[in-house]
Every structure is written in structure tokens, then in C-alpha cells.
Amino acid sequence: MEGQASTFPGQPLRRLSGGKHEHVASLMEMLRIDLEEATLLPQQRSEVLEELKVQSRVADGCDPIYTIESIHTISRIALDSGPSSLSREALRCLANIFLLNPETRQRWVDLGFSVKAAERLKIDNVEDEFLISRILFLMTYDTNLNFEPLLGQHLLAESLNTHIIRHSKRYSKSTRRHSRPLQDDDGALSENVKLIYNIIHYYPGFSDTFTTSIPHLLKILYRRKISEQPLAAPVRYLINLLGCLDLEDQKCCRFTTNPLFPSSDPSCNTIHLITILEKAMDCYPEQELDALAGPVVDILIRIHACAPESVKKQMRALLLPINENKTSPHEASQKLPSRLLQLSTSSWTPNLRNSIQTLMFDLSDQSADTYVQNIGYSFAASFLVTENLAIPTSASEAFSSAGQVKSVQAQKKDGEVPSRTPSLIEDKEREAEKLFRLFERLKRTNTVKARCPVQQAIEQSRWEQVD
Fold first, then answer.
1. C-alpha count within 13 angstroms, C-beta hemisphere, residue 297
2. What are the boundaries of the region Disordered (predicted)?
3. How far is the C-alpha of 448 from the C-alpha of 456, rounded, in Å?
4. How many angstroms separate the CA atoms of 59 and 99, rounded?
5. 286: alpha, beta or left, given left = phi > 0 and alpha = psi -120 to 50?
6. pLDDT at 253
7. What residues contact 33, with CB distance under 8 A and at least 6 apart?
8. CA dist., res. 46 & res. 31, Å (int)
9. pLDDT score for 462
10. Nearest Cα to 311, choosing from 338, 271, 276?
11. How far apart are the C-alpha atoms of 350 and 353, rounded to whole Å?
12. Per-domain residue ranges for the chain?
């Protein structure tokens, strides 16, 4: 019949001339009948699934494949038999359906195919890893799927760890920075790592089961060539996952040596992460850096907390703005520490801003005095006030100096000649003015209780107006 697809053995599949809705409905009907009566030849069955996959990439007109009956039919083709090109084509259809129509995810869960999906992931195949991991990742949203039986009884965690080990074996020392992995491998690794991340988020009790993957994740990250987009997938997913794992291995004690700090080169992973951060700042605008680079700074904070002193020393040398301009972000150099200071005051990076300030504070041994000395008063003040930390005496003196010094060559209030050079006094005056404005803004917002040292000096009669 004109406009209908042929179902006679030996005849090729003809595309319908009607609308997409009717075309998709006809394809589903052919698959449903074939599943019960085997009316299609293998080539025709493959063509129908290929056409259905193409149609499922756009949600409009795909209502016939979003029904529970259609999901059941496609899932049977995908998971009832062993791995094959036909079953993987059906898995691709399901992945498209679940991505574009979240309501269908719960229907799939209700049909009970999640167990078969977890079992399928035990197979050592990169396509199966990619497709099953993506489907299960989507099931972590908008469904009531309980992953605990999958992780425990059906060894989902072990399967995911095994795939990560397989990926890490492709990264030998000789291939580092010389070759790139295949796109299919990167895609499978990305979906795997995203799924583990969500499992840990929703089932933190299973976090320890993924600790064994830490050395392999670090190996993949370190030996990958840094691309022009340094935080493109799967790198950003690897960093996100490492950030939520037990890097110190405090609970399981599986490692004799912390894989973060290998004995051959304890700083290699830390310096590599800092290099990624620096290249990311060259590549992405500030609006994107807030989400992309934030996890990199966060993991550097965690690394510093457990790092040996030699690694901490290198981190301070690479990240602290020692001997650089710390009075104005506009005057700062293009070196990494100064650029971090610029981001720590940017309105475009609220999350990254807080992370950078915390990192700088930790690198300063969590000492307010050292923190101010390292990054300057104007950069340090907002963090100290927000964290309810006492303003160091040296910072308070900066306020006093602005009102007590008549000129560059003037004497102090108590008659003592200042020992500091005129240029330093001018810097103090500029710092005091910036801090004064900062305290005034904080006081107006009522978000924190901030007392300006200048105001305190006035109230305590320690302030003298000079010409």
C-alpha cells in the first residue's frame, strides 16, 4: 500500500510519505509484531531501528515511542538478548528517548529493566559502557530507581571500576602528551565517571567502593595531553569525581603510598592540576570559569590539606602573589597568582572567588597576618570579614596611617618619625581608602557585622583631623 513500509521478507524498507507521527508509529508497530512473530529479516530489522534512532533525535512527532508499550518493546530488543549491533542500536534509541523526554525514565524503571542494564555493564565493551552508563546516569534524575541493589547484588560499582582500569591501561608513559584517545573511549569514560559522581552524591555510603579507582583516575588525568580546551570532557568530569573521593584514603587504608603524591615525583599531580588551571584561564571567559575552574581550585585546597611539606612549598611558590603588585587587580601582572587575585574580586565568579580566597588563606597557613602580607589588605579584607576573622593589627594600622600622616614627610600622631619610606606610606594610604570603602559597603548591606577600625578610632578619641 502506498505510504506504508514493506514488511515482506527480502524487500527493503521504504520510508513513509506521511507525517513523522504516523511514520514513527508504523516503525514501532513493525518492531512490536516482529518481536512476537519474527516478520522481518535481520537487515530489515536493523534498518527499522536505524530509522527509529534517527527520528528519536528530535522530540517533535515522537509521541508513539514515548508510550510504555514502545519503551517495553525497544528495551526487550536492547536487553533481553546478548550484546549485538542490533541491541546497541536499540540502546541508542532508548538513550535519545530518555534524554529528550524525562517522563519516560520512570516508565522504564517501572518495567524493571535496570537490573538487566547493570548486568550488561559487566561486559568489557566500550560501546556497552557508553550506552548503559548514559542510560543509568539519566535514571539518577526524575525517577525513584533504587541503586543500592544494583551496586550491591549486581556489582555495578565493580563493573564501573573495572572499566576505569581498562581505560587507564591505554595511558602508558610513552603515550603521554603525544597521542589522544579515541573519541568513543572518551565518551564512554565521561559517561562512566558522571554516573559514579551521581551515585556518590545520592548514595554517599558507597563512596568507599570507588576509592580503588583513584590511582587510575589520576593516571588518566596526568598522562592525557592537555588540549586547547583544557577542561573539556572527560577532564572536567575526572576532576569533579576526584574532588568527592577519599583522596587521603582515611577509611579504607588501601594504599601504602598516597597516589596523589607518588614517591618518584610527589608534586607531579599537583603541578599538572595547576597547569590545567592556568591554561583554562587563558581559554575560557570569566562567566564559564566560575563553573569549570571552581572544582580545580577546590581539589587544590584538598590536596594542600594532606600534602607533604615539599608539595606545599611548591604550591606556595606557584600560587601565592609574592613580590607582585597586590594593590589593584588592574595593575596586576599576567602571572597566574595575580590573575587569581583578579578573579577573587570578579563579580562574574562568585563560587570561584570564594574558592580562590580559601586557597590563598590555606597557603598562608590559615594565619590572618600572613594572609594579609601575602595578598594585600584590599584583597584579604572581604574574606576575613566574611569568615568572621579578626582584622590583623597591621591592617588596622593602615587605617590609622591615612589620618595620622599629614604628608609624605610628616610625623606620626605621637611625634615619632615614621621609619617607613614615603612610597610605602602612600601604599598604606591607598590601602586604607580601599578598606574604608569596603567596610562602608558591608555595613550598608547588613549581611555581616563589620566594624571599621577608622570609626572605632574616632569613637575612642584616637583620631585627629589634620590639614
1. 30
2. 402-426
3. 17
4. 10
5. alpha
6. 63
7. 7, 39
8. 10
9. 59
10. 271
11. 5
12. 1-112, 306-387, 393-411+420-459
The CA–CA distances, whole Å, from 194 to 82, 186, 223, 247, 291 equal: 25, 12, 20, 18, 16
Residue type, 272: H
**What b/e readout covers 116-132, taking b as 16+ CB neighbours within 10 angstroms?**
bbbbbbbeebbbbbbbb
* Radius of gyration of the chain, Cα coordinates, nearest whole angstrom: 30
**Cβ neighbours of residue 1 closer than 8 Å, sequence gap 6 or more:** none
Grid cell 598562608 is found at 364
- How many other CB atoms are there within 10 angstroms of residue 393's CB atom? 12
In which residue ranges of the chain is pLDDT below 70? 1-18, 173-182, 251-253, 323-333, 393-467
* 454 and 393 Cβ atoms separated by less than 8 Å: no
Count of C-beta atoms within a 10 Å radius of residue 417:
8
d(CA 215, CA 263): 13
* H or E element in which residue 155 lies: none
Nearest to 64 by CA among 14, 114, 111, 19: 19
C-alpha cell at 239: 576532576
Task: Kindly state the helix (H) or strand (E) to which residue 44 belongs, with its residue range.
Answer: helix 42-55
CA dist 456 and 317 (Å) reads 37
**Could you tell me the three cell numbers for 277?**
588551571
Write down the pTM of the prediction.
0.81
- How does DSSP classify residue 331? G
The residue type of 53 is: K
Which ranges of 170-308 would DSSP assign to H, the alpha helix? 183-202, 214-223, 235-242, 268-283, 286-292, 294-306
* CA within 13 Å, CB half, 372: 21
- The C-alpha atoms of residue 148 and residue 249 are separated, in whole angstroms, by 23
Taking phi over 0 as left and psi of -120 to 50 as alpha, with beta for the rest, 376 belongs to: left
Amino acid at 305: A
Q: Cα–Cα distance between 126 and 132 in angstroms, integer?
A: 10
Would you say 44 and 13 are in contact if contact means Cβ atoms under 8 Å apart?
yes
Q: Which helix (H) or strand (E) holds 94?
A: helix 85-100
